[in-house]
Structure formats: C-alpha cells, structure tokens
Design goal:
By secondary structure, the protein is of the alpha/beta class. It folds into two domains: 188 residues, no CATH class; 63 residues, no CATH class. The strands form two sheets. Strands 1, 2, 3, 4, 5, 6, 7, 8, 9 and 10 form a ten-stranded mixed sheet that branches. A two-stranded antiparallel sheet has the order 11-12. A hairpin with a 5-residue loop joins strand 7 and strand 8. Helix 4 packs across helix 6.
Length: 258
C-alpha cells in the first residue's frame, strides 16, 4: 500500500500561457499513469518516471456533483469545472522516485512551506478552438504528472493519507530542483504526438474503395478536420488543407505499429 493523493488534474480556467482546457471534452478512458514532473520534449515517459497509478479520474462540472468532502474541497479551490483525480504512489514497494515524491508532497502540505505541489495532464490535444486556438476543445488524457511548477496554479495536489513511508529521509531527484528554477510548466497539457496518432488510427473508418484506392482518412490532430492520407508513399506530405499541419506516413505507421 502506498501514499494516496487526490487533487485537481485539470481546470477550465486559463493557465499561465493563456490556454483553457474544456473539461467536458476531455477523454479519460485511457487515464492510468501517475508520473513525476513531465516527459521530455519528445513525449517520452521512461518506466521509472511512472511513480504510481490513477485510481479515479472524473469530471465535476458543478458543486452539486461533488460526492464527498475531498471533492468539495477541490471545488472550493477551483470554483470552475475540473477533473477530480485520485491516485496511489508506489512508495509502498520501495520505488525510489515514489518515495521521494511522497516525502516532498508531505513536506509541502505544511502551512509554513510556500512551495505547492500541483498536477498537469499527460496526453494530447485532439481539437482546438477559439479565435486564438488556445481553447482545447477535445483532449485525451493518459495520466497526470506531479509537478512543482504547474502551468495552471489551480491544479493542486493533496494528501489523502499520512503514511510512515512519507517520513523517510529520501532526497528528491535532481529534476525537482531543476524544475524549481523554471518559471512554470510549458503548458497544462503536455502533448504526446503518438498518443494522438494512435487515438485517430483506432477510429479510422476504412471502406473497400478507400483501401483499393490506396488511401485512408484520419482527422487532423490540430483542427479536427478529416484529412486524406495516402498509403502508397512516404514522400507525400499529407498536409491538412484547413490548417496546413501535416503528418508524414512514417509518423502514422510508426504510431500504428508501436
């Protein structure tokens, strides 16, 4: 048994870079992972950065939807629609990074400590909207990252229980201190391109004529419009006629076969 935590995984309010996640548009079907800090710039999440599991992730749109005191505490903190998250760390199995995270989370719960621990979403954006494209209309969450500098300060993390494991004198990994030197996370939703590609590939609707013609359809990850992708060559750019974004066939089939 490990340290149990709960908090606000995402909130429908502008973050520090002006992006807003629409809570009703977040897909939580594949939300399993609890990690520390964020994946690297390529979206890679090494196994030992996974420090626990998500045990509950549900959207809450109004205060009346709150079912217990923990959810009501999160609502009072956010006061906007949010994703309520519960998770358990792997510190009970001596996972070194989970032990460090549990110790740091408990330390930061003390009222005299100015450092606050928060959460950010790991996953991908399926559709953007608004005049500036900073409204994340449809998103896919694969997990949540515990971070010392969340891009959305509303997304706080709290201890559900107080285990002796959290008292162990385990120094936090160096990346926590590196993160403290930064102003904030780059965004409230850390993008993983392969996650988005896999999602759309699973949704592909192929017809006999499409297959025989050597092409198939997939939605553009940026604007959500249907784009025709040709299977016959990797040299074709396969650009979206609506927003100009593109995937190479290498990207698509790499995601398909991973």
């Amino acid at each position: 048994m490990g340290t149990k935590v709960y908090g606000i995984g995402a909130a429908q309010t502008p973050d520090n870079v002006g992006e807003t996640i629409v809570i009703a548009g977040m897909n939580l079907d594949k939300c399993r992972i609890l990690s520390d800090e964020h994946a690297d710039d390529e979206g890679t999440l090494p196994m030992f950065r996974i420090i626990g599991a998500i045990t509950k992730a549900i959207p809450i749109h109004t205060e009346q939807e709150c079912q217990d005191d923990r959810q009501r505490k999160c609502w009072r903190h956010a006061a906007v629609p949010f994703i309520y998250v519960e998770g358990e760390l792997a510190d009970g199995t001596e996972h070194p990074d989970a032990l460090s995270a549990a110790a740091l989370i408990k330390f930061c719960q003390q009222p005299n400590i100015p450092l606050k621990i928060g959460l950010s979403v790991e996953g991908g954006t399926l559709e953007r909207g608004g005049p500036d494209k900073k409204t994340l209309m449809q998103t896919l969450a694969t997990g949540f990252a515990i971070t010392v500098k969340p891009c959305n300060p509303v997304c706080s993390l709290f201890l559900m229980n107080d285990l002796a494991k959290s008292d162990r004198n385990i120094p936090p990994p160096a990346r926590y201190f590196e993160a403290l030197k930064k102003s904030q996370s780059k965004t409230s939703l850390i993008e993983n391109r392969d996650v988005v590609l896999k999602y759309y590939i699973e949704k592909l609707k192929k017809s006999v004529s499409d297959y025989m013609g050597g092409f198939t359809h997939i939605k553009c990850h940026n604007c959500g419009n249907a784009v025709r992708f040709f299977k016959s060559t990797e040299s074709m750019p396969n650009g979206c006629a609506h927003c100009g974004d593109s995937f190479s066939m290498s990207d698509i089939w790499k995601a398909l076969n991973r």
